[in-house]
Amino acid sequence: MLRVIHRYRKPLMLVLLLIFVVKYFRKSKYSPDASQIAYLSPFKTNHDKSKPDHTRFESRIVAVGDLHGDLNHALRVLRLAGVIDSSNQWAGKKTVLVQTGDIVDRGKDTILLYELMDQLRTQARSAGGAVVSLLGNHEYMNALGDWRYVTKEDISTFGGTENRRKIISTNGWIGKTWIANYSVAARVPHPLGFPHLSHIASNFTSFQPSKEPSNDPFLSTATAFVHGGITPEYAALGISEINQIGASFLYRALDGKLPYRHLPPDTPSKEAQFYAEHGPLWERTYALDDEDVVCDTIDRATKLLNVKRLVMGHTPQFEGITSRCGSKILLIDTGISSAYGGPLTAIEIEYSQTLIGQNKFNTTWSENEAVNALEEGKPKTLLFHSERVVNLTYS
């Protein structure tokens, strides 16, 4: 028998090798690995099989309301939220920080606050996080030369009125950073960096949700942010169009002669309407009207924006962060500045996806989201929590 095997050893080795190759390719074809995972095929994973399998993904958003010229209180709030350290350097890692406007007026620290935001924006980006900066009605008031709430101490930090006007113009550094780094509204999607949805993994804000694939199971988990409010009429325009109108009006205000009586000459009607009572900068309906009215309004607005909630500043809530309509409305201007004397607060949105099941056809994930109110001197308060199971199928 041994002699027979020895005599035919080469053909036998070839047969064994052929059997191994066939089995290998059959396994490769019918046993999908992570590189084949997708959700209804449009979403391709960016997962690298050479790296350890990922079974949990997390993201964190922090939002801070009106700061109004008070650097000290702003720093205390940012430390409270864990996004800066004791040296005022970025410590938030991959956190997304959203500031909802009205950095300027009522205090003396305008220059220092905008310098801080520019610094943190760069540091956050290097750490994998982001700083999303919004414009409030007071930024536009200053661009228009409406300085009713500017303090003498603030003007002196600029070196006088003339220098302040130059710095807050299209040729000045504050005007330039507003144009380059600030918008009127933002839509921050979940999950940030989740590998099965690589089309949004590198974007911290999404301005055109209607152009995102409608079968994205995470599309409506996003949160929208604005200074005043977004009515259903503006929601129908979309975040991108709101920001385009706002950018055009901002440049027009910064580029002309100051001060204006109200609006720059030849301001188009859509820009004038944008700056009116129910535009995104001045809207107060969500804060002041009865819930019987605003809950229906916010339902329509959030559906149009494909978001879970709308986070706003502008209208002070001196008792602390206010949640309305099942946390679809979050009001985060609590009078942080010493000009108001309100509580020092921020909100935190914690989001996670945890792998709970996997087979050759799909992966199953547990999605968790918690919205917390942070207030100096008080324990964290849970405002909203949701949990659901999401299935992602192999393509």
From TrEMBL:
<protein>
    <recommendedName>
        <fullName>Calcineurin-like phosphoesterase domain-containing protein</fullName>
    </recommendedName>
</protein>
<dbReference type="Pfam" id="PF00149">
    <property type="entry name" value="Metallophos"/>
</dbReference>
<feature type="domain" description="Calcineurin-like phosphoesterase">
    <location>
        <begin position="60"/>
        <end position="317"/>
    </location>
</feature>
<dbReference type="InterPro" id="IPR004843">
    <property type="entry name" value="Calcineurin-like_PHP"/>
</dbReference>
<dbReference type="GO" id="GO:0016787">
    <property type="term" value="F:hydrolase activity"/>
</dbReference>
<dbReference type="InterPro" id="IPR029052">
    <property type="entry name" value="Metallo-depent_PP-like"/>
</dbReference>
